[in-house]
C-alpha cells in the first residue's frame, strides 16, 4: 500500500506577475513533494491562482480589461513559472474554474445547514491589498489615511449588508484542536501568536460582499458574492473533487499533509480555514507551515514596494538549479531571509561548482583514466571507507524525521558536510598513489562513486536537473531515484561502465577574481 502525501502552495493573486516570494513558496513545496516521492509516497502537489475579489477587479479595471481576461493572462504566467521552476505539481487550480465554483457553493450550503451563517450588516475597515477585515484596534493613522498596523496596507471603511460566519462559536473547538494537534501550526514560533489571537476572543466573520461583483455568488442570494478568502481556501479541497467525499482523490489525500504558506496569511489558514472545515464536519489539514519572507534589504519583496528581484531574470542568467539551491540553503527555513545576486554567485562557486561539480568530475575522470571507465568490482572495504559510506545508512531515518519536521536547514547542512567529507576522503586516500595496490585503488574509486551516487540522490529534491545529470554517470534515470537506496553500499556493483558527463556548474567570474 502506498503512503500518501498532499502538499499545497498558497494560490497566488494574479494581480501582478510572479516574483521571488512566490517562487520561494513554490520551490519549497516542490522540494517536499520530490523528497516524499523518492521516499515511496504517492504525492499530490497542488498550486494555482486566486482570481476573485476586489483586488483583482480593480487591477483589471486599471488595465481596462474584463477581469476574467485579465486573470487568463496572468494566471498563464504563473503556470509558465511552474514549468520554469521545474515544479512537479500534478494540478494547477484556478478559482474561476467551474469545479471550484461548485465546491465553494456546496461548502457555503453546508455552513448554512449547520447554522453557521446569518445575515447582518458589516461596518468596519477592509484592506483590499490583504483582502482582510480589520477592527479599530488593528488600524493606525498614516499620512492622513488609515492603515493596518500589522501589514501596513491601507484600509477603507465598509458599511454594507453582509452574511456572517459564526466564528465566535468555534473559539473553544479551535483551541482544543490546537492543543490536541500540537504540530498543526508550524514552526512552533508562530503557534503562540495564533493561540493568543484566538484566546483574545473571535468575532464573527463577514463572509460576503455586496458592493462589487467579481466573485462567486452566494447560492440563494445572488446580490452577494462570497468573501474571497472563503472562496480561495476551498481550493485545497475543490481540487480533490469535493464535495464527492468518495472520490479517490479526496479519500486518499484529505486531510492535507501540509499547507505551505507565507507567515502573512497564517490567520486565514490557522483560524478561519479549520473553523470552516469543522463547521462543515470535514477534518482540518494536518499542518499549516508559515514560512518567512524573502527580503530585499530589510523589506518584504513586493510589487507595491517596487523592490522585486525577478525570478525569470535570475533563472535566465544562472539557471534554475542554482536559484533553487540558493533559496533553499540561504533562507533559513521558517525565518525571513535576505537575498542578493552576490551571495547567489558565491553559492554557485563554492557549493555547486567546487564542492559538488568538482567531486563528480574528479572521480569520473580518474575512473576513466585508471579503471578503463568501468566501475571496479574487485574491492575490499576498510574502516575509512565504511565510516564514510555507512553514515548514509545510519542517518536515513533521522533525515526522514527532520523532513517531517520541515527541518530543511538540517537537510542542506547534511549534504554540504557530506560533500566536504567526500572531497576530503578522496584527497586523503590519494588513489593516484595506489597504482601498486589495485584493490585499494579500486576500493577508493568505488567508494567515492557510491558517495557521489548517494549525494546526488539527496540533492534531487533541491537541484533535480543537476542531480539527474550526475546520476547519468551511472546510467540512472529519474524513475531510478529512490531514497532508500542510499543505504545500499553494493548498488554500483550492478553497474558496469560509467559515463563521462559535462561540467555540471560553470564557475561565475567575479570582479575580484
Ligand atoms: N491569494 C492569497 C493566498 C490564498 S491561499 C488560499 C495570497 N496571494 S499572494 O499572491 O499575495 O501571496 C501568495 C504567497 O506568497 C503568500 O504565502 C505570501 O506569503 C507569499 N509571498 C509574497 N511575498 C513574499 C515574499 N517577499 N517572501 C516570501 N513569500 C512571500 O496571499
Keywords for this structure?
alpha/beta, binds 5'-O-[(L-methionyl)-sulphamoyl]adenosine, 513 residues, 4-stranded antiparallel sheet, Isoleucyl-tRNA Synthetase, Domain 1, 17 helices, 6-stranded parallel sheet
Q: Could you please describe the fold and organization of this structure?
A:
With 513 residues, the protein is of the alpha/beta class. The protein has a domain at 341-494: Isoleucyl-tRNA Synthetase, Domain 1, CATH 1.10.730. The chain is built from 17 helices and 18 strands. The protein has helices at residues 20-38, 54-62, 67-84, 98-113, 171-180, 191-199, 228-233, 235-238, 248-253, 266-279, 311-318, 320-330, 341-370, 383-404, 408-429, 438-459, 464-471, and strands at residues 3-8, 41-49, 91-94, 117-127, 132-134, 139-142, 145-148, 156-165, 185-186, 205-206, 208-209, 217-218, 221-226, 258-262, 288-291, 294-296, 299-300, 337-338. It has a six-stranded parallel β-sheet with strand order 3-2-1-14-15-9, with helices on both faces. Strands 5-4-8-10 form a four-stranded antiparallel β-sheet. Strand 12 (217-218) and strand 13 (221-226) form a beta hairpin. Helix 11 crosses helix 12. The longest helix is centred in the last third of the chain and has 30 residues, at 341-370. The radius of gyration is 26 Å and the shape is elongated. The chain starts with a strand and ends in a 42-residue tail after the last helix. The model has no long low-confidence stretch (mean pLDDT 95). Bound molecules: 5'-O-[(L-methionyl)-sulphamoyl]adenosine.
